[in-house]
Request: fold
Amino acid sequence: MRSTRAIGRLSLALLIAALGGCGGQYRVELSNESGRTAVASVTHGGGFDGSRTLATKAVPSGETVELGPFQAPGFEGVRISVTRPGDVGAMPTETRLRRGYNAFVIEAGGVDSWEAVVLRRVE
Reply:
C-alpha cells in the first residue's frame, strides 16, 4: 500500500514538473544568402492571447545574425517569420522553432513562388 502511494506521488510530481516546464529556451542563427536585406521576426503564441513579438532584426545580405536567447512558457509555439522589404505581394516565410538552438539559411525564393525568401534549416 505504501509503495502504491509513493509511486502515485512520484507520478504526480513528474507530471507537474513536466507541465510546469513546457516552455523552453530558444536561440536562432540566420545567415542571409538571398542577395538582399531580409527582416526576421520571432513571435510566441497566437492562440487565445494573440501572438507576442519577441524580437525583430534586419539581416543584411551576406551576413549572419543571432536572435535570442528567448524564454517562452506555455504550450503555444515560437515561430520565425522572414520577409524582404520591397517584395510587394510576397508572403512571409514562416516556420516553427524547435527548443534550443535553431540555424537557418535565408535563400531567395523561386520565380514561381509566392514567397520572396526560403528558410533552409541547417542541421
